[in-house]
Design goal:
The chain has 203 residues and is an all-alpha fold. It contains 8 helices and no strands. Helices cover 77% and strands 0% of the residues. Helix 3 packs antiparallel against helix 4 and helix 7 packs antiparallel against helix 8. It starts with a helix and ends with a helix.
Length: 203
């Protein structure tokens, strides 16, 4: 009876979260404050992850336990990416809104920050530079680049990130934020120099 109750509640939650996802997708094309849509997307993403991870924790012991858990984690990452794409869609539609900085931060740090350069485009970074280089909210986003660096497989994106950080150093009123941006730029220069030295030593 208890097991049946859990399954029934899980089905209800799945129906609810699916409804939230459809609702948010539909609302992207309708008139509603974009920050409210952003909050609803975050809520839907959080509930979705909670439901999936609950399944992960409840996988029974068996020879296939690890593979079953991995399938659930893959599903969790896929769903997380799906919501991440909707968040980016919203951010790109309203680039001047204050929530956009947080939206891009979540895109960069999603799934441990793996392949963040596949999510950001030079235009994304140009909009961040244009509308948010003076924002205090930018601190969390650029702090991610302290660890991940700004050298990407896309030369245009790397240049855009560099220009963005330089604009922060020049225009942001917060001394600490300017310092973080300056540190990342300096670190990037050191990495580039070290790589060039390795290349030259092989000639």
């Amino acid at each position: 009876m208890k097991k049946s109750f859990r399954v029934e509640n899980l089905l209800i939650l799945l129906i609810l979260i699916t409804g939230i996802g459809i609702y948010v997708k539909d609302k992207l094309t309708k008139k509603e404050p974009p920050e409210e849509l952003y909050k609803k997307l975050l809520k839907a993403r959080s509930v979705s992850k909670e439901i999936i991870l609950k399944r992960y924790r409840e996988v029974p012991d068996s020879p296939n336990k690890n593979s079953e858990r991995q399938k659930i984690l893959d599903e969790c990452n896929a769903k997380d990416n799906e919501y991440g794409k909707m968040i980016l869609q919203l951010a790109r539609k309203y680039p001047q809104e204050s929530f956009v900085v947080k939206a891009y931060f979540r895109a960069v740090e999603a799934n441990g920050g793996a392949n963040f350069s596949d999510k950001l485009t030079p235009k994304d970074v140009a909009n961040l530079q244009k509308y948010h280089r003076k924002s205090k909210e930018i601190k969390s986003l650029i702090s991610e680049f302290t660890f991940r660096g700004i050298n990407t497989k896309n030369p245009e994106l790397t240049l855009a990130l560099s220009a963005f950080l330089e604009s922060i150093v020049k225009d942001n009123p917060d001394k600490q934020i300017r310092g973080i941006a300056q540190f990342i730029l300096l670190k990037n220069e050191i990495v580039r120099f070290e790589k060039s030295q390795v290349v030259n030593s092989k000639r």
